[in-house]
C-alpha cells in the first residue's frame, strides 16, 4: 500500500487564461510563485510551495492532482507498486515543475493524471495578510462514472480510508487525520467537481465572501455547514467556470479506533446543518458536474496524450 502524507496541489487547464490568473491573484487571495507565458502557479499561507497551477489551454480539464509522499524511497516504492498493477507511469525522477522535487505521475482508472512527490521546496518567507488568506488545499472533489471502482482503487492501492458516504452518491476519503482530502461524486463522466481552499475560521470565510461580493462575484452556494466532515462552506465559480470553495473546521479524526464511517442521508438538514444555504440548486449541480474530462498524461517521450 502506498502511504500518502497529504494533498499538495491541483493543476487545471484554463481557456480564459489571463482572466483566471487575475481571479486567483487579485480576488481569491493567492500569491503567484511562478509566472510563465502559459503556466502560473500560486501559493497559500502555508509553507507548501504551491497549491494551484493554471495552464493555458483550448480545452478545460484537470492537468493533474498532486499528493505528498515521505521521501525518495517512498516514491521509488510507489513506482514499483504501480508498475506491478500495470498502470502507465511517468518517472520516477526529478519533477520539472515549480518547486521541483522528486516524483512520478500515473493515470488512475478514470483517466486522471495523479502526481506523487517528495522533497518539494517549501516557503520560509512569512505570508503577507490580505483581505482573505487561503492557507492550503483542504480537499478536491472529483466526478466519476463508477464510484465503487474508484473507491476500491484508492483504498487498496493507497492508504485512503472511507470516512463517510453521502448515500451512494459521494464517498469521502482520508489519508491522514483530516476527514477527507479527496472525495468522489457520481456523475455521467469524469470531471472536476470542485476545489476547496482552507481558511483559518468562519470569520475568514465571511471576509472572503464580502471581498468577492465587492468585486462583483456572487456566491454560488452558501455559506453553510455540511453534515459529512462538519465543515463550514461557501462556493463560487471562478473565471473559467470551475467551482472553488472557502472552507474551515473540517473534522479531524484523531482516534481511528473510535471512529466509524456512516452513511449520511441526502436530506436538506444534513446538506446544510445551519439551514441557511439549503440544498444545492440545479445551477449548483450543473456547475459541479463540469464538462467531460478526457484526462491528460505524458508518454515515455515526454509528449502529451
TrEMBL record:
Oxidoreductase found in the keyword field: yes
Pfam families (alphabetical): Glyoxalase (PF00903)
InterPro entries listed in its UniProt record: Fosfomycin_Res_Enzymes (IPR051332), Glyas_Bleomycin-R_OHBP_Dase (IPR029068), Glyas_Fos-R_dOase_dom (IPR004360), VOC_core (IPR037523)
Residue ranges annotated for the VOC domain, each copy included: 6-119, 136-249
Domain of life (superkingdom): Bacteria
UniProt entry keywords in alphabetical sequence: Dioxygenase, Oxidoreductase
GO molecular function annotation: dioxygenase activity
The protein, known as: Extradiol ring-cleavage dioxygenase
Amino acid at each position: 500500500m502506498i502511504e500518502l502524507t497529504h494533498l499538495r496541489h491541483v493543476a487545471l487547464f484554463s481557456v480564459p487564461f489571463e482572466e483566471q490568473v487575475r481571479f486567483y491573484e487579485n480576488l481569491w487571495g493567492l500569491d503567484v510563485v511562478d509566472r510563465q507565458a502559459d503556466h502560473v502557479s500560486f501559493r497559500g499561507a502555508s509553507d507548501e510551495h504551491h497549491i494551484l497551477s493554471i495552464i493555458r489551454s483550448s480545452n478545460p480539464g484537470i492537468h493533474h492532482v498532486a499528493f505528498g509522499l515521505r521521501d525518495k524511497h517512498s516514491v521509488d516504492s510507489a513506482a514499483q507498486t504501480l508498475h506491478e498493477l500495470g498502470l502507465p507511469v511517468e518517472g520516477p525522477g526529478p519533477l520539472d515543475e515549480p518547486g521541483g522535487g522528486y516524483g512520478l505521475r500515473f493515470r488512475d482508472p478514470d483517466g486522471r493524471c495523479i502526481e506523487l512527490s517528495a522533497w518539494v521546496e517549501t516557503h520560509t518567507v512569512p505570508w503577507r495578510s490580505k483581505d482573505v488568506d487561503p492557507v492550503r488545499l483542504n480537499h478536491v472533489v472529483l466526478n466519476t462514472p463508477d464510484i465503487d471502482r474508484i473507491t476500491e482503487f484508492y483504498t487498496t492501492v493507497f492508504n485512503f480510508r472511507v470516512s463517510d458516504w453521502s448515500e451512494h452518491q459521494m464517498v469521502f476519503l482520508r489519508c491522514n487525520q483530516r476527514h477527507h482530502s479527496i472525495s468522489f461524486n457520481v456523475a455521467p463522466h469524469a470531471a472536476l467537481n470542485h476545489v476547496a481552499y482552507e481558511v483559518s475560521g468562519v470569520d475568514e470565510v465571511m471576509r472572503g465572501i464580502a471581498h468577492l461580493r465587492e468585486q462583483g462575484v456572487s456566491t454560488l452556494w452558501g455559506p453553510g455547514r455540511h453534515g459529512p466532515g462538519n465543515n463550514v462552506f461557501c462556493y463560487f465559480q471562478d473565471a473559467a467556470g470551475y467551482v472553488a470553495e472557502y472552507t474551515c473546521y473540517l473534522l479531524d479524526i484523531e482516534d481511528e479506533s473510535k471512529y466509524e464511517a456512516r452513511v449520511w442521508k441526502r436530506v436538506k438538514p444534513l446538506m446544510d446543518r445551519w439551514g441557511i444555504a439549503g440544498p444545492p440548486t440545479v445551477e449548483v449541480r450543473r456547475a459541479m458536474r463540469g464538462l467531460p474530462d478526457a484526462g491528460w498524461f505524458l508518454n515515455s517521450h515526454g509528449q502529451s496524450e
